[in-house]
Structure formats: C-alpha cells, structure tokens
Description:
The chain has helices at residues 21-34, 47-54, 58-70, 100-107, 124-130, 158-161, 166-169, 174-180, 199-205; strands at 74-77, 81-84, 94-95, 111-120, 135-144, 147-157, 187-196, 212-221, 227-235, 240-241, 246-248, 257-259. The protein is of the alpha+beta class. The strands form four sheets. Strands 4-5-6-9-8-7 form a six-stranded antiparallel beta sheet, sandwiched between helices. The protein has a two-stranded antiparallel ribbon with strand order 1-2. A hairpin with a 5-residue loop joins strand 8 and strand 9. The longest helix has 14 residues, at 21-34. The chain is globular.
Amino acid sequence: MASDRTTDGRGRPAGVRVTPLYHQLYVQLRQQITEGGTDPSRPLPSEPALSDLYGVSRVTVRRTLERLEQEGLIRRVRGIGTFATAPARPPDRMNIPGLVENLITFAAGTTARTLDWAVVAETPDLAAGLGPGPYLRVLRVRSHEGNPISLSTIHVPAPFAALLDPVDAGDEPIVKVLDRKGVLASTADQVITAVAASDLAAAHLGVAAGAPLICMRRLMLTEDRRPVLRQESLYAPDRFEYRMTLTRTSVGPLAKWTPVG
C-alpha cells in the first residue's frame, strides 16, 4: 500500500528537521569537557579515533573541534595532540525556574533584549488560554554575561496589555512590570517539554536549526483565575538543568517521593 506521507529525497518525512551530526557531537564533547569528564593533562582521542568512536566523518570531527577551540574549551599542541582546557570554575549551568517567584530571581543577574513588541490578532491556541484577543506579543532574548540563555515569547491579554509600555518595561520581566501596575499573578500552570529549534531560535540562541531545545510554557493567573500572561521560553539544554529536592513520603516496594517546596 502506498504511503500518504510525503518524504524528502532521503526517505525522511518532509518538513522534519534533522540535527546536524557536528552539533550532536559538539554537545556530547562539550558536556564531557565542562563536567570534568576529560583529563586536561591527557590528549583527547585523535580525529580518526573520534570519527570511528562516534561513527561520523573526519570533516564532522574537525568542524566540531574547531568550534570547541573557538569557545576556549580545547587547545591544540602541534605534534602532541588536542587537550581539554582545565575549567577555571565549575560548569556555569543555570537552573530553569520552577515557580513564579523564581522567574523574578532568575532574571536578576541577566539582561534582556526586546526583539518585537506588537499587537497580534486572536488565534484558537491563544484564545484557549488567554481568552478573546487581540494580545500584546513581546519577543525577548535574555542573556547572562553576554551569552544568550533563553528566547521568550510572551502574550498579554488586552485588558492588561494597555498597562505596558516598552520604554517603561526596559528589560524587566513582564510579570514584574504588571506587579508594579497592580496586576498580581498568584498561580501558574506550567509545562516543560522539548522542541526542535526553529530558524529564529537557532539564530538567537547560537544553536543549529533543528537542534533540541528545552521548552517551558507557562500560563500565569490572578487569584480569581484571570489570565495575566502566557510565556513560552526556549533554552539550550547544554546550558541549563532542572533541579528539585524530593522527600520520601512512603516506604516499601512502591515508595513515593514528593517535591519539597
């Protein structure tokens, strides 16, 4: 039976992005180096050895090593080999905020650049969470020490959007600006998943198009369940981790653990 799925010339479903091999290898090697999985006093495997180990071409290995060298994570010694650079400090990973108040704390040591501030029309997806449109859409890149860490798309329903001004907001989190205007979010519905990087996300986060990203979607509500804003934030997975503390609530073969806080 003929398939009704359209494929590209390589037999893959049309429209499906495939993460470049060099980026997959880059993520693996970068993680090993930054998390102390390599000895800076011993050379890394040679290009042919890495090619065989990871099942990729020498060109892919060379491109990956060039990127790691540009980031100062490896050094090449002619005639001896390639070495991981000893980290000057522990890996600089940031925790993805889990609670509403953590969004404010998370932003304290960062800066944000607004890419777009515009009114957009209602869509079924937005209306399902925010109610009738139109909405204010704010697109921002947030950085830490000059390095991009997240790309966020924020939608605010019309009743609250009228309170916002791009100059007044600066690079404050929009929820904090609304706090100043007397609109208090008290709860949030949050989902964390994974998505492939769009061309826009790839350009602003410094990853390859189609690379996996952590996606956090959050709908923030007032005490009486009125929607305040919807935010979708994208994070490069090698720069973030999600941490929580668990406490044991029962023992036995079906022991249960519950997040603390």
